[in-house]
Every structure is written in structure tokens, then in C-alpha cells.
Prior knowledge:
The chain is mainly alpha-helical. The chain has helices at residues 16-26, 39-62, 75-94, 99-102, 105-115, 119-128, 133-137, 147-161, 169-172, 174-184, and strands spanning 7-12, 31-36. It has a two-stranded parallel sheet with strand order 1-2. Helix 2 (39-62) runs parallel beside helix 6 (119-128), helix 2 crosses helix 10 (174-184) and helix 3 (75-94) runs antiparallel to helix 5 (105-115). Residues 38-187 form the Glycerol-3-phosphate dehydrogenase NAD-dependent C-terminal domain.
Amino acid sequence: MVATAPTACIYACEDISVAEQFAAIMQTDYYRLSVTTDVTGVEACAALKNFYAIGVSAMQTWYPDQGRADGQSKNPTAAVFTQATLEMARLCERLGGQTTTAFGLAGLGDLHVTVGGGRNSRLGQGLGTGRTVVEMLSSELFGETVEGVDTARVLANMALEKQHTDEDPLAYFPLASAIMNAVLQQKRFTLDFSNLIVQ
């Protein structure tokens, strides 16, 4: 903000008039703001984007593209980014938020930023090269907090609560399942693209 670089944010408050008042005070021609009453959805996305950034970032290195300067594949990454957003929307709804929040700044917007760099992104890129979470956390990420790993544990507990239902988590959350297998089961990251939901 000090550099006046254009950016956009979302303010969430149960009282929309309060959010609007804060937005009116803070907004400038380069700091653009939207408001929502979906506090639950915004908070859910704040945690979920770290988790899903691991899977999206894994695609950048799992299918390396030597023809690109950064060596990162774009098409597989775009497909998984879309899947991540769809799954975030489903999880937002299950947690009591609105699906539309996942398709805005709090969801796909923040996911895009997180995939662009940071600890969750670095973990994902390491997993994409065939390394394990233990290997990454004991070397490049040693001593650092990777929020997506903590979110994986919370999601695993949620899944346990659903284990006696007829719901197949792989059918609804194939990317989340793949990330949790790698993060919590210490397996090498793998994702069956035939399970992705193409829209």
C-alpha cells in the first residue's frame, strides 16, 4: 500500500453497514474494497487457500515444462487450480459459508497469491518433484510453520466425522484427498486426473 500498487481486498462483517463504513474510510483509487456478511466463508477460505496451494503448486513441478523460462507447467496447474476453487466452494458451504465467496477475492484471489510464493507453495513444489513432506520439513522448510499442513489435520478430523455416511470423499474432494495422503500419510504426492471435476 505504501508503494500505491493496485490491489483489492474484501472486508467481512456480520453487520454489512459496519463493513461498508470501514471500506469507505480505507478505500482509495488503488486500494479497492468489497464487503460481505459471509464471515464464515472468508475465514474458511483464509485457511483453505494454504492447504490447496500445496496441491496446485505441486502441479508446477510435477509436469515440468522445459520450454518455459521458469520450467513450470501451466495447463495442469490451471486444471488443478480450478479443482481447488470448486472444492473450496463445497467446503465453504459445508462449514456454513457461501459458495460464492470461494470464487472471489477471499477464495481464488488469495489462492492465486499463495500459489505465487511462500511456504505452502514451496512445500507443494517439493512434493511435485517426488519429495515427501518429511524431507521438505527437515530441510528447506525446517523450523517454519506451513499453515496448509495444519489445515490438512483439521480436514482429516472433519473426514473422520463423515466416515459412517454414504459420502465418498474422493468423488467430491479428489484434490483434498491427494494432498492429505501426501501430507498426513507421508506418501509421495500423486493425483489421478480422471477424478477431477471438469466444468
